[in-house]
Amino acid sequence: MIHLPMKRLNTLVPWIVPVALLGSWFWLYSINKGMNSFVASPLQVLATLLKNTSAFAQNAWLSLCRLFGGVVLGTILGAASGLALARVARLRSLFSPTLQTLASIPFMVLIPFFLMAFGFGEVFRVSVITASTFLLVNAQAFHAVRQLKSDYFELAAIYEKSSWQLVRQVLVPASLPEIVGALRFSLLLAWLAVALAEKAVAEWPNGGLGYSILRAKEQGQYIDMFASVIVLASLAWAIDQVVGWIQRQVSRWCDTVEADDAKEDQR
């Protein structure tokens, strides 16, 4: 019986499920290749990726630019509006009911309105991604500030902090973990928004990964479809790892700040 060191075993464990899924893909292809046209061999997909690397890279770059543009803009606007709504009652009464209603509606339903407002261009694609990110980040930033203890604001008033100092030194640090968490989750919706926006405004060959997937499916080019899915999934995983690392750093920093504050209170 082979005994592997515990450290090496812990390294191998996370690979069990991916290897099993890859094996299942080979198995499903072997039993369905003669009966179902909606199949593609992993080896065929790999060959397509290697053969058309430049085309996949170009579409990936287009989708990433749209994704980052929309997510960054949506995060900034969502965080700023969430902080403002949490602190200003009049703004909350005016905008919160509408934003809550929009957040409860699948954003795909709003695509025709974005087409009407922005036309068939790049602004439309980015705006759809911005909206899906904005609604989620706005809600998280709002709830983070509303849950703050009143002690923070009382201390800010005692030390005569200005509105800008209150935002920079209290509101942003307190809501940052929730904002980053919302950003991480919004990326899942953002990739869907990318695909829908790229499909709504068809542009070949510069459509992006989302459009490539849907176009290949409609034309029965299932090998190209699976190849585009692999590229998109790889990018989504890599971005999630980066944002997850940022989230851990922010949480660690906030824990350190809270511990320092607790020590100061004990003194």
Task: Please characterize this protein's 3D structure.
With 267 residues, this protein is mainly α. It has one domain: MetI-like (MetI-like fold), CATH 1.10.3720. The protein has helices spanning 6-12, 16-32, 42-51, 53-87, 89-103, 111-118, 122-146, 150-158, 163-200, 209-218, 222-266. The longest helix has 45 residues, at 222-266. It starts with 5 loop residues before the first helix and ends with a helix.
Keywords:
MetI-like fold, 0% strand, 11 helices, mainly alpha, 267 residues
User: Which topology does CATH recognise?
Assistant: MetI-like fold
- N-C termini distance: 59 Å
Specify the structural class: mainly alpha
Task: Work out the count of structural domains.
Answer: 1
CATH architectural group: Orthogonal Bundle
> For the record, what CATH class applies?
Mainly Alpha
3D shape: globular
Break the fold down into its secondary structure elements and pairings.
Blueprint: H1 6-12, H2 16-32, H3 42-51, H4 53-87, H5 89-103, H6 111-118, H7 122-146, H8 150-158, H9 163-200, H10 209-218, H11 222-266
Short description:
With 267 residues, the chain is mostly helical. 82% of the residues lie in helices and 0% in strands.
